[in-house]
Amino acid sequence: MPLVTTKNIHYKIGDRHILRDINFVLESGQITTVIGPNGAGKSSLVNIVIGLNTQFEGQVERMPGLTIGYLPQNSKINPLMPITVKRLMSLTRKVSDQQLLQALEKTGVASLLNQQVKSLSGGETQRVMLARAILGKPDLLVLDEPTAGVDVTGEIEMYELIAQIRDGSGCAILMVSHDLHLVMSKTDQVLCLNQHLCCSGKPESVSKHPEYLALFGDKTESIAVYTHHHDHVHSLDGGCEGCVHNAENTDHAG
User: 196 near 21, Cβ under 8 Å?
Assistant: First the structure.
């Protein structure tokens, strides 16, 4: 049974159409990436899927008992707020120290448990917020621009981590991203959105679709075949000391 099925979703604010005739299915164990230009309706679609927005026409069918973990876009913490990672992780639910550590270990930041959140780098903050999103072992993990504030090498690490979480838990992932060239090898389904679904399917086919090419232009030919190989380890903020960057066709858009 699909986790989520959307049927003929229409959403508008006043006379302005935000989304039109959106239909897709989210399956367990599948990574679905939503791409599109600014103003395409990506975050609006996410809000409808997770139930934050109910002011739309059409249907969203969710599997009974579906649990959702959510990492919102630009999930910034007030830098003046004196709060530790441990306290942030337990703000909205009662969890044991063991559960906290297990979630942080899965995202590679268990050592930050007692650190002040305001002292974290962008990459560390995103990993902590991702750990918070997976605390409840969700069936569906929804990530709205999970690499915000992270440089390109940090983005690669984050996307690989997200795929590892899917592989380890079997959850479905719905992710908003502008980096099809980085997520291609980790994504099962791509939804190319610009108020309507321009195209959808496997990333290799979407990257060659005329409507995708019309939106993203000449950059597509170079970014669609991006492959990254590791012979080193990046730090959480994307730094790399004494390493050789080894990649095929790395002439991607930066």
Answer: yes
- Please choose, from the candidates 162, 250, 228, 13, the residue with its C-alpha nearest in 3D space to the C-alpha of residue 176: 162
**DSSP state, residue 185:** G
Place of tokens 């790399």: 240
Sequence-distant (≥ 6) Cβ neighbours of residue 143 within 8 angstroms: 71, 130, 133, 162, 173, 174, 175, 176
- Specify the pairing of strand 246-248 against strand 227-229: antiparallel
DSSP bridge partners of 201: 190
Residues 123/238, Cβ–Cβ less than 8 Å: yes
Domains along the sequence of the chain with CATH: 4-75+138-248 (3.40.50.300)
Tell whether pTM > 0.90.
no
Burial of 253 (0-12, 13-18, 19+ CB in 10 A): middle
The pLDDT, as a whole number, for residue 233 is 46
Q: Which of 77-81, 183-187, 201-205, 224-228 has the highest mean pLDDT?
A: 201-205
Q: What is the pLDDT of residue 82?
A: 87
- Residue 76 DSSP class: P
pLDDT at residue 245 is higher than 70: no
Q: Give the C-alpha separation, 209 to 43, whole Å.
A: 23
Alpha-carbon distance values, 130 to 38, 151, 223 (Å): 23, 17, 26
